[in-house]
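Per your request, structure below.
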């Protein structure tokens, strides 16, 4: 498969890229800073996903090099922990630019290449968070941007099904990455206490569900966001 994963320099995106390279797939990744991976089968684009022209340029290069895509994983995201009254509008807009508008733009450009997948059916996977169903205080803008992505997932699953493209989401509980490094330990512990499975989510817990949701094994699943760890 040819898989585009956004935000592959660190964290979840890097772990996913390494996993799919280990499986023998071709992986295209991107981030603002240069690649942290240098492996056969891996191509990196140094771009800011909030720059729509740069996003279009990346998809143009993918089309030139591969002609199609089999899967798009919209992983890159950012958060901000703050009471909404202490969150300036510029901060809120910046979060939406990456977490929502960049996903929308990647889906629009990606769909043109995903519909050419020789696999017959291709997939988009959008990364979300337990901050949405739990409506976590201090995460209003972050969770609102991801709630918008979950709605995008539902609507787009209908709009793209005629093109043979499935659209699903994966809702993550806390995972140890740069994004969560600044959270107070007590806060992470209290979130884990709310999960049905009371331990920290690891990269190994994530790769299986991602593999399932972008492969033909979930060929009749679309419009769903699957939450890990048991969040109800
Ligand atoms: N970690 C958690 O506990 C957790 C929980 C729930 C959901 N999530 C979600 O999981 C996803 C991955 O999070 P993570 O924890 O792995 O985060 P991370 O370690 O901070 O990684 C984010 C990646 O995105 C890239 N990136 C950030 N802004 C970008 C931009 N404007 N343009 C291009 N690339 C950009 C970063 O590279 P550069 O800095 O080089 O651009 C980095 O590679 C996010 O959508 C997040 O909301 C994470």
């Amino acid at each position: 498969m040819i898989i585009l994963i956004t935000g592959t320099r660190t964290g979840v995106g890097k772990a996913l890229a390494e996993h799919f390279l280990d499986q023998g797939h071709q992986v295209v990744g991107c981030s603002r800073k240069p690649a942290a991976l240098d492996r056969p089968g891996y191509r990196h684009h140094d771009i800011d996903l909030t720059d729509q022209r740069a996003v279009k340029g990346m998809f143009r290069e993918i089309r030139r090099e591969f002609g199609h895509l089999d899967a798009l994983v919209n992983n890159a995201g950012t958060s901000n922990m703050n009471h909404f009254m202490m969150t300036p509008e510029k901060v809120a807009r910046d979060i939406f630019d990456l977490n929502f508008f960049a996903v929308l733009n990647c889906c629009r450009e990606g769909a043109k290449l995903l519909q050419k997948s020789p696999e017959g059916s291709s997939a988009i996977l959008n990364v979300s968070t337990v901050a949405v169903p739990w409506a976590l205080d201090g995460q209003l803008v972050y969770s609102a941007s991801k709630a918008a992505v979950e709605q995008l997932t539902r609507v787009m699953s209908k709009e793209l099904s005629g093109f043979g493209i499935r659209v699903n989401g994966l809702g993550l509980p806390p995972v140890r990455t740069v994004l969560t490094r600044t959270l107070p330990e007590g806060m992470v512990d209290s979130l884990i206490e709310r999960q049905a499975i009371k331990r920290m989510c690891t990269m190994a817990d994530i790769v299986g569900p991602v593999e399932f949701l972008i492969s033909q094994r979930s060929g009749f699943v679309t419009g769903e966001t699957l939450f890990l760890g048991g969040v109800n």
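The mean pLDDT is 96.

Regards,
D.
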